[in-house]
Predict the structure.
Amino acid sequence: MTALSLKAQEGSLKNDPLKIEPAPLSTSPTTTRPVGTDTLKIKSNGIETTILYYAEDSIITKTATNVTYLYGNAYIEYGDIKLDAAEIIIDRNQNELIAKGVQDSTGSWIGLPVFQDKGGVYETRGIRYNFATNRAKITGVVTQQDEGYISGEEIKKNQDGSAYIKGGKFIPCDDLLASTYIKAEKIKVIPGDKIITGPAQLYIGDIPTIFALPFAFFPDVKSDAQSGILFPKYGEERVRGIFLREGGYFFGNNEYIRTAVTGDYYSKGSFGLNVVSNYKKRYKYSGSVDLRYSKSKTPDIDENPLNSKDFWVSISHRPESRNKTRFSASINAGTSSYNNNNISTENFQNTIRSEFRSNISLTGSFANNRFSYGLNARHSQNIQTNILDVSLPEFSLNMTRVTPFSQAKQEALKRLSFSWAFSTSNKITNVVRPNSAGFDISNSTNKADTIAVTFAKLPELFANAQNGARHSIPISTSFPLFENFNVSPSINFQELWYLEELDYTYIEDENAVRIDTLNGFSRASTYGVSVGISTQLYGSKNFKPSSKIESIRHTMLPNLSFSYRPDFGQEKYGYYKYVQVDTTSAGEPVYQFLSKYNGFVFGNPTLGESAAISFNVNNKIEMKVRSDTAKSEKVSILENLTFATSYNFLADSFNLADYNLSARTTLFKNKIDISGGLTIDPYVYLTTNNGEGDVIKRVDAIALTQGKGIGKIRSGRFSLSTNLNSKASTNQQSSRGQGGPGGLASIDDGGYGNAANDGYGTMNNGETNIQRQVPHYFDDPNAYIDISVPWNIRFSYNYSFNRSLNNNEFSTSTRQSIRMNGNLGLSPKWQLTINTGYDIELKEFTQSSLGVYRDLGCWELTGNWIPFGRFTSYSIDIQIKASALKDLKLSRRRSFFDN
């Protein structure tokens, strides 16, 4: 809590029936100097000073008593002090001022004093201030203190800003009439330091409880700068037993970094240690570090005993400045069994993921941004297959596109440009890949294997690494043709650099090929040319003025391109070797072209000459609909309909590529999104009999020319999604915070928050970063028209299939699923969330969860339930909202994890 946010909003004068409802700070009355102020002199500590004063009604000064009376919206300003009130009395003999409100004809109080000094702003019923001592006595006051209010019958304020409150109570929410509060007869507030009370007692429902203390102490500092003990969460797991989790200490008294050190303990012997830090330097950078270690151990008599040591590292660093050099990092790595042994519904998405990726990058530019560079370290880890890939380092250097003839008159020469790109990579993997060359290799493993990631295995991992570099120089231009066409010719040069190459030798005795690795610098140069021509075609249909439809427009964007690439398998290039790889049963040798860069990090030059023409056309159909306004409304009928294929003139067979067809559209003002696609094989499949049975064979004949239709469908996909909501939630969609509705975590995270974003400014609650406010749309009057309630449902349906020819028959594999998540505001204080799905092929529900939130005034209730599946569990928490009392809660947790 901070004294800088003090605000008075309610008094307790006797015989005063007036009740003042609390208002947000942003709507508080202000003490702004009015136009036309006058001055008078007073003495403060023996020094004559000036008071600015003003009154809207009248100003009366009695020279005999040296007292000035200000009536009607009176205002004074004295140093750091500003005061507004209906009446103000300035007594220069006593060096005092008195301010108070007045009652109108209905008996309601108006013009209550608003007092402001360096300690804060007070709205009160009456105030007496002494200029000589700089002390004030305030009656009937309520001051806002961080996440609640401190009220008192009387406040005495000292020169140093400290305040003594008589008959006070602390209300831990923004409801002055709340029945939950801490009552203390004496309270002392030292702004920016602490709050001390005498005997204090907790009241719930205006009933005193057994929770009482002879004195109480609260740090009065910013909530994100507090340090203190973190009370653990408790619950029970089926495997590891009863637990106390995330108990420890929070270090928050540093301006730039906050750290939580916590531990976990389980009754069956498991334990863990966690260190989480968040740091931020404004306008420069921010980030977080999450280090976790756990020892999972259960008795040997258990059905599936655990005995493993795991760790997990999660680091995030984000630059916030716009310097030429930027450093960022995202690291997620650990042992493959960590998430399996430490399942948590609070980080649900992290628990069910099987693959984690990391990236550390340094980027920048120089030479007036003509060149840019990037240095990266990447990591990919699959905890199910135990495959680890690390790219360390990756370096790229790029030159921006240069137009050396930009002053030329000819358009083609004027637009001629080129650039240069250089990239290098060193990729380390623990996978030893099996032979997949289609022939026997005498010195290679025949089965897949992985290298253990240990310090002892580092030489073997480095020996399995792949590295290389690549240069690219694209040169291109464009120019108009016949006004309606655009021609774009280009040529691309590429060169590969490696520090080794492969050599192949046929071993006749073994009828196998020996592959040797030859160390030394090796390079390969390639090039390709292309030219493309594109245009736009429009067609429209106008309707009669009496028609609701004004017009329909069809836009077609065809593109035709030709590309040529030579055969880099020719002997003159030296990139391939024509090697005997086998011997037939008749003793005839079998030869094959083998690349000396096969399987390298940047690949190898392409084998075979290519001269191909590619064609694609994109269609878009729109409609204009007349409306009541002067401007017509544009409606999209078809967002896009694309057809693409290509034809290689130099291929020895099957020159025509597959047809690719895709489409997308939206319905009902973007409420429903529909997309789909098909891949069609254009060739004929014939069924013949070889004497042993029917044989299905793909033949080099285009189906359209043989009267067989357009071909055979290879694969297809279809998806439909919608986001439906009530009018109230639609209107307020843009004003929602990052958290989920009603204080629950976002349903986009599977019904659970992201532990990496805890912030630790509110860590003492032991939960995820729960939003403390009911969604804005609860205040929308649309939500209470008829039976309308705020709700939002996101629904998606996905279907895909693949058809292939295997073992002389066509087989089709399909995937089909439904996914739904949403929220429902039953009332301004009740919120439900749901996340579920159904796999139609497997005929089972996907992992589902149900969440509930209830605003209980100063209290709140949150619950999460996963009713079935591997992560079956539930949790219920009832706690006070205010961070100062966040550990005052009742929790019930139970998990049934299959570790």
Q: What stands out?
A: The two ends are 43 Å apart (CA to CA).
